[in-house]
Amino acid sequence: MSPHSLTPGSVRSAAEVNEQIRALWMRAGGSLSAQERAEYELLVVEWAAAIQSDVIEAA
């Protein structure tokens, strides 16, 4: 996934983003390049937002 492939305002579930994070680590073999690290950081931010959204909806 390219950092540019995220559509502003698009919302994926935390589970979907988590799966993408896991796939990234598997492809990278446990050691991220600079580009993969940037992708990982974007995914973590998206995952955190999805978790927060899930918590707000549950309340």
Strands, helices and their partners?
Elements (H helix, E strand, L loop, with lengths): L13 H15 L5 H25 L1
Helix pairs in contact: 1-2
Question: How would you describe this protein?
Answer:
The protein is mainly α and 59 residues long. The protein is built from 2 helices and no strands. The longest helix has 25 residues, at 34-58. The protein is elongated. The model has no long low-confidence stretch (mean pLDDT 84).
Keywords:
single chain; 59 residues; mainly alpha; 0% strand; elongated
Mean pLDDT: 84
Largest sheet: none
| Beta strands, count | 0
Radius of gyration: 12 Å
In short:
With 59 residues, the chain is mainly alpha-helical. The chain has helices at 14-28, 34-58.
